[in-house]
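Format notes (please read before filing issues)

Several people have asked whether sequences and structure tokens are stored in separate files. They are not. Every record keeps both together, in the order shown below: the sequence lines, then the token lines. Line labels are part of the format and must not be stripped during preprocessing.
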Amino acid sequence: MPPRLMDPSNFQIFMDALLNRTEQQEARAATTNELLLQVVQEQRSARQDNQKFQQQQSVFNQRLLEWTDRQEKFNERQEKFNERQDQFNIIFLDEIRGMKKDIKELSDVVLKQHETRLKRLEDFMDGFLRKAG
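Then the structure lines:
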């Protein structure tokens, strides 16, 4: 069988359809490439944002650790101060108790001396009045 030859009008229709199909594929490929490029750019942007966030988080974590260390040192100093304050309060309370005891003793002595002097004055006055009377 001899090979068939294509009708020239059919050939033109075929070539137009082939050209149209090729243009559509090229347009789809261009659109796909454009979308892929946007996806890649978004991924790069997200990666950069993530790196920036991680750097900021790292700085924050470092500052938090430094603050925690300072807080621990402060707490240790505060505990030492509280211990010294407690010791001072105990000593001061003992001193106040001692002063209270001394004041009571002095008060008792002064009152007793005063009573004794009053009694002697009374006795003297009684004796004097008896002699005069």
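For reference, the curators noted about this record: The helical segments are 8-132. The chain has a mean pLDDT of 92.
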